[in-house]
Amino acid sequence: MSGLDRFVAEREASLVDFRRSLHREPELGFTEYRTASRIAARLHELGYALRVGRQAMVEASMLGRPPASQIEARLDRLQGDATVARWRERMPEGMTAVVGEIRRGPGPVVALRFDMDALPIAEADDATHLPAREGFRSQNPGVHHACGHDGHAAIGIGLAEWLVRDEARWRGTVRLLFQPAEEGGRGALPMAEAGVADDADWLFAAHLGCHLDTGTVAACATHMLYSTKLDATFAGRAAHAGANPELGRNALLAGATATLNLHALPRYAGAATRVNVGKLVAGVGRNVIADHCRMEMEVRGETLEAAEFMAGRARAILESAAHMHEVACEIARVGETCAARCDAEAVALVERVAGRIVGVDRVLHGAPLGGGEDAPFLMRRAQDNGGKACYFLIGSTLADCHHSPHFDFDERSLGIGVKLFAGIVEEATSSP
Amino acid sequence: MSGLDRFVAEREASLVDFRRSLHREPELGFTEYRTASRIAARLHELGYALRVGRQAMVEASMLGRPPASQIEARLDRLQGDATVARWRERMPEGMTAVVGEIRRGPGPVVALRFDMDALPIAEADDATHLPAREGFRSQNPGVHHACGHDGHAAIGIGLAEWLVRDEARWRGTVRLLFQPAEEGGRGALPMAEAGVADDADWLFAAHLGCHLDTGTVAACATHMLYSTKLDATFAGRAAHAGANPELGRNALLAGATATLNLHALPRYAGAATRVNVGKLVAGVGRNVIADHCRMEMEVRGETLEAAEFMAGRARAILESAAHMHEVACEIARVGETCAARCDAEAVALVERVAGRIVGVDRVLHGAPLGGGEDAPFLMRRAQDNGGKACYFLIGSTLADCHHSPHFDFDERSLGIGVKLFAGIVEEATSSP
Amino acid sequence: MSGLDRFVAEREASLVDFRRSLHREPELGFTEYRTASRIAARLHELGYALRVGRQAMVEASMLGRPPASQIEARLDRLQGDATVARWRERMPEGMTAVVGEIRRGPGPVVALRFDMDALPIAEADDATHLPAREGFRSQNPGVHHACGHDGHAAIGIGLAEWLVRDEARWRGTVRLLFQPAEEGGRGALPMAEAGVADDADWLFAAHLGCHLDTGTVAACATHMLYSTKLDATFAGRAAHAGANPELGRNALLAGATATLNLHALPRYAGAATRVNVGKLVAGVGRNVIADHCRMEMEVRGETLEAAEFMAGRARAILESAAHMHEVACEIARVGETCAARCDAEAVALVERVAGRIVGVDRVLHGAPLGGGEDAPFLMRRAQDNGGKACYFLIGSTLADCHHSPHFDFDERSLGIGVKLFAGIVEEATSSP
Amino acid sequence: MSGLDRFVAEREASLVDFRRSLHREPELGFTEYRTASRIAARLHELGYALRVGRQAMVEASMLGRPPASQIEARLDRLQGDATVARWRERMPEGMTAVVGEIRRGPGPVVALRFDMDALPIAEADDATHLPAREGFRSQNPGVHHACGHDGHAAIGIGLAEWLVRDEARWRGTVRLLFQPAEEGGRGALPMAEAGVADDADWLFAAHLGCHLDTGTVAACATHMLYSTKLDATFAGRAAHAGANPELGRNALLAGATATLNLHALPRYAGAATRVNVGKLVAGVGRNVIADHCRMEMEVRGETLEAAEFMAGRARAILESAAHMHEVACEIARVGETCAARCDAEAVALVERVAGRIVGVDRVLHGAPLGGGEDAPFLMRRAQDNGGKACYFLIGSTLADCHHSPHFDFDERSLGIGVKLFAGIVEEATSSP
Questions:
Q1: Three-state SS for C297?
Q2: What is d(CA D427, CA D432) in angstroms, rounded to the nearest whole number?
Q3: pLDDT tens, B109-118?
Q4: 8 Å CB contact of A267 and D274
Q5: N or C: which end of chain A has fewer CB within 10 A?
Q6: pTM
Q7: Which residue of C has its CA nearest to D226?
Q8: Beta strands A273-282 and A109-115: pairing type?
Q9: ipTM value for the complex
């Protein structure tokens, strides 16, 4: 048994504990104060040099930041949490990025990205759901780690603990990028703009699950989709629905028409596309013509061309639906993801490493991610400066699909994840 | 100048004060604890016999009662209000009806109805809006007395004060019905079921405004519409909108399709109809197929037949939209209003009285109400037992139309209202 | 028995015959060559001075004229009909109006309007349908006298025959206006523009049926609706629906979206409104993105304001639906009706006359017409020049409602109609 | 120069002539009387044994056959065409399949499929369109060879002429399958059911164009889509849109709602899908509630699972839309295509042959077909009996995309097509 295997075996319980403590307190994008504070504190403890908040992200590039009131509400709820109290000043206005760096003499710079945020989904609460059964279900109502980022963050911390050990064989610089707000494609760009990936010789990111069982690794995620996230707000005119319906201008009819027609956008030959109006809130009461309608939507495309087609057509639909019902419409771009290009050298490196990890029994060259990701914003910065990047998938048998109330992953994949990243660092920095 | 004119002239300021204190703290249907407590306290002070809460309404007939949490939240906000503290025990679980009765020997029973609730509309906050300018704008965010029920309640209290005075000439029994939750057509039925109108020889109700200027009175409201209020809930299946859209069952598409098709219900020849989906809330986030959609809607019809046509077709549309998207649908009837029949004798009485009120310069036989009302549930109980009933309109020049953020009425109509009701009581009880 | 009663009794069979001959060969608006030729020929025979075609209508005011090919097709079908052959030259390009005038010395000018056109509805063909059973069902496939204009024309001819008899007591000038294309509101305006009603002291028009049983007459039609008829054409781009759907621009989706949203236009308080997309034709085949969509629609309103609201909103919806799907849109106004104002003197005259007609057992002051009419274009011209006008209803028990495949009226109303018009002429010209 | 090259060079003009004569008289599926007669006549002349009409197809498997009146109309138009006159008796009721067989001693059976039908699209008529400019534009109004099947048929005849020449080196049996009604996926199944492919050792089919330029060949068509073609008919109730809209049951609203929601079916992860409502015809006139609506639609999917998902959801949408508007709905399956499986041996054979054809400068292993095809019904019959099959693509630079009014292909690809098929026959029958 290698030192790494022994280390992971010994830390399995603490990995699971840390993951579950994050799972119990899931935090939405740009409000990950509890998560980011604990990560910063632990990295600091372990001796990592830190860049936090404004040092790690450019405020102007933060799309889709929640309103100040929501950030405040989160902080209010964390009142009394000593770790948060210590770090919150350095993370103003939702700037919750944490970058930890460690150096062992000259050598390549390896950047590794871990995301931290959860989703606005109510977690299941029945006995079939392990987090409910074992008592680590979300305590933050309506928020659920339904995409496994709690696992990603736990893997990052497990790795950080290993890298400082003498027995870990590597050299050069390792930079751990703990990213907020991956959901909605919002957190990577402001970190990329802050330059955290510019000098990376290697950059790796990964995702748990993705329809691969525990023990499988895919060295290269395919079918990543470009995406554009839009918020549309329709503003009409209220009127009494019984006394004077004709005086109203119905924002809900505009929203309903836009919703149907957005979903009816044509399929795109040769490139997968997606469209979803995922949230719609309109009106105040049944006897008033709805004077407002707020819609959260996204379009995706496998190619940039397809993605731009979808986004362009979507805007025309939103504007026309507003015009149709004589209401005003504001459209805000609140997030974006782009498709990754994995470098062959980096993919080969992941394949080599994965092939020798105990617990990995199947290594695929590529497998589909399906959804969008904003890690490519970081990958591109490295690639534009001559670095090599790769996004890989860590199989983990799931209780239910991503973004569902019953989503849960197999915690055995946490240790595998730590070993994969550790192996990657060793391999990437061992070459002459 | 008559005693009544003098009385009203002297009380004008206190009438306005009381109305403004209600306007400042508007309360939604079945949460009118502050309003109802103050009314109960004042009636008690004046010597009226009281029936409150369960004595004045039948719980089983309360459609569309808000969830317990909302009622509690209102009471929490009123913590520290001594009047509320004194009365709240007698008004359990949203049962905020107050009935005050006073007797002057034998004679007819005259029941008068005043409603008390406000609407879930954010009140305007600019200098063109008098309540904002003069400092009595709503302090209850998102709630606004946008239909003048604050005025109705103030008129009821002004009348109560007059009736106890020696100079007021009347005999028999006067019963003042302070009704909760007129909006949504929810409060009158449980009061009617409690029998508060059963023995009334006369029953009158009125509304301020309704497109008539201050100084105009219409003795009989026409074009009252039957209505049915429905809540529909669509339950689908969430899925990641990028990774597996086909696994989702989209409750929002069901809701949008239903909304469009409900509004597209055919016009009904020979009877005005209405339909409105006034509120729709669906989904959790842009990258998740919306698994729920909640809709608040209503249909109206000038005749019972037209109203039933609309309600029947609406149910078919809701169910079909659900089936179309393979989602479940639950439909709840949460409110109802019916059209009033005004008795000729009662209308004539109002015309006679209005014709001699100082401040009334124009008396119409009839004018349209336009919207729905639930007062007819009380009127019918009186009529079924041989009583005569009438719903009349008290003109009041409006700043903007009913149910709009800028709604405000002309406070000069408060005194006119008190004099009309006082005159009606006198006239109704003076006949041999 | 009066001379008129005797005359009608004797002519009953020939009235029915004439009506049935029209019913058997129904003709769409502006293609009534067979009907108009027979009418012109008979009037000529009886000694009426005739104005036909261009003498009776202004071409530039003909909205919604069918394409030349359709007019030609009708004439082709009538090849060999000697009467048509004699008159068709005087009715070029669909100008099928016929005006017959007769004079008996000085006196008032009385204009009477009769429409002649049928509807593009396939007539029922089962034994429950009297025209099918008795062998006078439509021989013009897809065209049906489903609104009784065959009856109107027959009444007009019956009247023409009476007026030339010595025993008919009247003086002055009677002008019979046989109008094409009432359906769609297209034929009255070009006749009005030709001045045929300008000097009328009295102008009367009537409709059979309208929910009144045989024997009932309503002296004044109410609830006439203003209407605007629009044709919309969406032009998109075809593409293979499998190979390249994204290259298409879908005109059918534009049309479907417009249809739903047009029907969802708000109800209008205080005035009945209507909207109907009655015909839609789109696309060429299932595997091609539809590149064209043609829609025939109309909006109606009880007041001019309501009608203009509907028409304005409808145009915005059509244009926005086109913009939404990136297709072009052309909107053509192809017809219009306006609401009638009946003069009190003329209504009173009809009431007086109806009251003494044998066969009329019930005379109402007013009753709803419900639909639109373009006779008011003629009425207004008379009224603008000081004449008095009235639109009345001749009850006739119906087999099924207007515009349905089983529509048929009670032929006993034909004689009543002749007597009513004859009585009106006598009364209108008898006053000193 | 090989004998084949010389043959093709000499016949180039006659190939083009034959193709243009088909282009000038395009015929819709199951009405290809002129095309099939000429092909049968020529094959007969050349000495092929023929199976025509009922000998080559099973009537019961003909989905989506046009109404008898349409087939008759086509034959009426061909009255006087001597070739048609000679063959039409053998092609009753739209059974226009022609199979020609030729034998050279023992050896493998090679079946080759060529389709013959055109599309209901009006061909472009401007100078930019070569067929218009050079005088071979469609003379059959509204019908256009917009998918190149005229080229397929010409290639088949060119091949037939080559195969009978002595210099053509092959042995065994060659069977040429001239198939009607590929559009709509209707003609292959009834031919397959007649057994024409059952004993084939090899079966090949091909398509011109498909986004590959002249000179390119793709040995295996990928992204073929399964498809299901549905016709839906909604039957409601007519009513006068002004007088009694509420009596109608609106089939057009059902159709419009279904159209929007069909197009809004979710994208399917991992498999391309398509949906198109390509044709919709509803209603009779603007003032009548539309009582019927006929819709032609199709769904497609890259996998059987995806195709079945689409078809299942589509049916639910159609039925629910009908229920929503209280109209009846009939759904007919009128066509179907399935995805092809190309056998590796057959693909390799095509690659080998293409690599040595003069005029082919680029050979791809695979390239997407994009649309649906029904050739796989024939391929499967061969494969189920142990034969090998392949569907390949013959590049041809296009003037505009498939199914567009300006579609036209590069006629240089005709000769290349003949040489490819000739080479395939030689190669397939040369092996020991």
A1: strand
A2: 11
A3: 999 999 999 9
A4: yes
A5: C
A6: 0.78
A7: C242
A8: unpaired
A9: 0.74
